[in-house]
Each structure stands twice: as structure tokens, then as C-alpha cells.
Amino acid sequence: MRKPIKIAVLLSGSGSTLENLFEKMDSGFLEATIDIVISSKIDAYGLQRAERHGVETVVVESKKFYSGHIPDWEGMSAAISDLLLPRKVDLVCLCGFMCFYQVPEELSGRVMNVHPALIPSFCGKGMYGSKVHEAVKRAGVKLSGCTVHFVNNQYDAGPIIIQRSCPVYDTDSVSDIASRVMEQERIAYPEAVRLFAQGRLRINEGIVEIRD
Predict the structure, then answer these.
(1) SS3 (DSSP) at 77
(2) Could you tell me where the beta strands, DSSP code E, fall in 47-130?
(3) Cα distance between residue 80 and residue 58, in whole Å
(4) Residue from 53, 115, 133, 149 carrying the catalytic annotation
(5) For residue 1, is pLDDT > 80?
(6) 3-state DSSP call for residue 67?
(7) What is the Cα–Cα distance from 183 to 177, expressed in whole angstroms?
(8) Predicted confidence (pLDDT) per residue in 111-147, tens digit
(9) If we measure between CA atoms, which residue out of 44, 17, 88 comes closest to residue 9?
(10) From CA 195, how far away is CA 128, in angstroms rounded?
């Protein structure tokens, strides 16, 4: 039997994705523990969620890594990695993390994110949150969804693990699309983490293979 994997979570907001992971662990779906939650904002509600579950929290404030309007993602990423690497976590999950985490070599293939669209559509720098769903509505596409992928050091360009789709209707508001996509995220992200925990994911020439 495999021992539960140890996860670190990076977030910036409400922590709803983190709470979903807690629920999946409590139900027995995920053999995992959350070792630490790191927030880019001191007032992120996700910190309170983590503390209620007895998980250690740390704030690495993004606003401290700005020079004018220019972010120092390299410096912020180094500060985060300095916290993560000594803990020897198995997996890092970005759960609504609104900063560009640059993955060190030691964590290559061990950082995941979920994007609220079907990559390679509606993704890349500046495409996050409601901006994605606004772009989906403007484009008039009939299908959207979510993509769970490994993180590399380009925006939304890491190897794809799981995608789930949902319909987009002409009468949908942006919030309608967002709600429907979130339903798929709540299924896809834990499933991707579970596959990782089971040792079933392999990256082969930039493509994720899911082994039986």
C-alpha cells in the first residue's frame, strides 16, 4: 500500500479549491495530506479554511515583490521554493494562485494547476478568472470546461493531465459559464491528484500518459 502523498497548496483567494481537496481526503477518495498552505495575500479566506483543518499557513505577500507595477516573480518564486523544498512535499497544487510561480528543477513534474478553459484555447498571460469566461462568451463557443495540467515556466503551457467539458448556451451569463466550469473543476482536479498519488502519471516528450 502506498502511503498518503504530502501536498503543499498555493492560493490567493477564497480557498474553495482547497476545501474541495479537504472534502475528497475526508471521504477517502484522496490518499493525501495537506502539509502547508501558502498565500500571496494576507487576507485570503483560504488561510482560514486551512487553519480550521489544522494546517500550517504562511503568507508570502505578492505586493512586497513589486517594483512600481512590475512584479518580481523570480524573487517571489524563490521565497516560496525556500519554504517548500525543505519540507520535501510530493506535490504542489496551485488553487487559485494569482501569481506566476516559477518552478525549480527539484519540483519539475510535481506542480499542478487547473485552468478554467480547454487549453490551448482561452489561456496564456492575462487569462485568468472571469476574464477567461468573458472571452469564452465573446467568442460564442458552444463548449468550455477546465484543464488540469502540470506547471512549467510558461503560462498555461505545461503537459495536460485531465480535461472536462461543459456546454455553453447562448443565454448564459459569464457567471453561468463560471459556475458550470467550476463543477467540472471540482471533479477534475481531485482526480488528477489521485492519479498522481497512485503513481499513474508519466510525462513522455511533453505528453502525460495515464497508466493502468
Answers:
(1) helix
(2) 56-59, 66-67, 70-71, 91-94, 111-115
(3) 10
(4) 115
(5) no
(6) strand
(7) 10
(8) 999 999 999 999 999 999 999 999 999 999 999 999 9
(9) 17
(10) 25
pLDDT value at 7 more than 80: yes
Q: Which amino acid is at 161?
A: I
**DSSP SS3 for 117:** coil
Within 13 Å of residue 163, how many CA atoms lie on the same side as its CB? 14
Instruction: State yes or no: is 115 an active-site residue.
Output: yes
Instruction: Round the average pLDDT of the chain to a whole number and report it.
Output: 97
What's residue 2's pLDDT? 76
User: Which residue spans within 75-136 are E strands per DSSP?
Assistant: 91-94, 111-115
Q: Are strands 32-39 and 56-59 parallel, antiparallel or unpaired?
A: parallel
Residue at grid coordinates 494562485:
97
pLDDT (mean) for 157-174: 98
